[in-house]
Design brief:
Largest sheet: 2 strands, antiparallel
Number of domains: 1
Strand content: 5-15%
Structural class: alpha+beta
Order of helices and strands: HEE
Radius of gyration: 10 Å
Number of strands: 2
Strand order of the largest sheet: 1-2
Helix content: 25-40%
Length: 45
Amino acid sequence: MSRLGLTRDKIYKTVARQLHGQVPCWVCGLHVLREEATLEHIQPL
């Protein structure tokens, strides 16, 4: 994982603890589970 990916993961883990496991999606801003906060949650593969 790249350095940016690791930084994003650390930020999301911190935010998820404060928001009871949910984080804002990088793409649309909806609150989703940390694992689903990617483009795929909007456009399934």
